[in-house]
């Protein structure tokens, strides 16, 4: 089990989410809660707040990107083999609808071969409170094995 996953399980979702924001302070702008973290899956809840809205009173595009990167990165971190490293290499996004509520980012890496090095494309979908998909990201993660 990865050290990150072990820490998540030992301190709990709320404390771990705060620690993640201390390690990478920019994530704190969306006040995320990492609600699920397991190899091949991560889920991040982002509460709707005025501070992350745009001129249309919906969640700002970059706040959605921030949630996607956090979910995709955390899922990658706990999915790669021990001693491996990763870095995001690129991200393609689609804005599908205005997000006017809390949002929920789901990174699914269950079909990715994490045992080999190279570029891995991680899909992250973001849903509003009604369950409508409002955003999709495809994040290329470059994985280097130890």
Overview of this protein structure:
Helix content is 27%, strand content 36%. It has 146 residues and is an alpha+beta fold. It has a six-stranded antiparallel β-sheet with strand order 1-2-4-5-6-3. Helix 1 (3-11) packs across helix 2 (13-23). The protein starts with a helix and ends with a strand. The model has no long low-confidence stretch (mean pLDDT 97).
Largest sheet: 6 strands, antiparallel
Number of strand segments: 6
> Order of helices and strands, N to C?
HHEEHEEEE
What strand line-up does the widest sheet have?
A: 1-2-4-5-6-3
Backbone CA Rg = 15 Å
Oligomer kind = single chain
General form: globular
Q: On the 0-100 scale, what is the average pLDDT?
A: 97
Strand percentage, roughly?
35-45%
Q: Termini, distance in Å? A: 16 Å
Give the uncertain stretches in residue-range form.
none
Secondary-structure class: alpha+beta
Determine the fraction of residues in helical runs and give it as a percent range: 25-40%
- The number of helical elements comes to 3
